[in-house]
Write the structure tokens for this entry.
Amino acid sequence: MTSPLLLQSAPQSPSTASTDEAVWPKLCLLGDWTLVNYQELCRRAQKPSETPRSLDASGLLNLDTAGATLLVKLLGAEALATLIPDATGLTDERRALLQAVADSMLDREPAPPSTYRWGDGLERLGLWVHSGWSQFTQFLGFTGLTLVTLIGLLPRPWRWRWTALVAQMQQAGLNAVPIVALLNFLVGAVVAFLGATVLTQFGATIYTVDLVAYAFMRELGVLLAAILLAGRTASAFTAQIGSMKVNEELDALKVQGLSPIELLVVPRLLALLITLPLLTFVAILSGIAGGAMVAVLSLDISLARFMGIVQQVPLIHFWLGLSKAPVFAVLIALIGCLEGFKVGGSAESVGERTTSSVVQCIFVVILIDAVAALFFMEMGW
């Protein structure tokens, strides 16, 4: 037989766990297991050398979450959960309290260390593929729902949310003009410096103008503007809708018979569809202006000559770059809003979904841009 287990509590006499000579070790709790006595309990309580098979709480005077937590730490969440149903001397309230604390701490217990196996990598890859496919199908469903709502609103202009649309255009478009212009201006200067550094070795410094013009008209202008909106606007969409979900405002809208898609998603989608092409135009002009500054100040190329070379660039490159802006706008708006609707009931979930929204938007924008570049090249445009 095992020796008796001692679990001491204060200020009452020590709690004892004695061995049932006939059957199994038995744990008896005595005294006040409360927050007031928590430090004394931690000092006097002893961890059992053997897991008890029964629990007697007839001598337990008081119990709160602090005492229940300490008991879980001493016995283990899983062991205590098996003792609670058959415990004697427990009131229904104390039994429910112990069960809730045990269940809560059971989820926090660290998983046992596992050895790596050759199949673990394939399993993890399969989980990633399944998660990606699930997110893709959710995105397609959300896109279809948004399009159906938008088409249903077109013949009913009295239901258009003009105030929300204008407000989102200001937040997503007008307020983003300074950062978009500044960033593209600096990147244009860097591209010009880089092009001049390489082309000077071949005596072709003048082609730096073509490099800057082609780069910003076809790729960099729309790409940088979309990435900035992905980090600035998509995250805002996710945080706004996610906070509304946490505060149960979305449920309130549904109870009133209002559609969250119509009120929240459609104005944001239309706002980005309108503003991103305009921001792309601003980005192209700013990038070329940055290149012009470097050309005038460092490359001895006059501004008139610089503009003359830019005017010779075929206009199709400008339209090719601008054509990608509506696609990026739709993707950024839908991903940002969808991640907002996925938010759970905690602030931590808002942060996780906001991060996921930014990462997904930037990844999708770069992926679509790469596919479009390959397509345009194969088409000879």
Summary: The chain has two domains: 5-108, 141-379. Residues 1-23 have pLDDT under 50 and may be disordered. The longest strand covers residues 54-63.
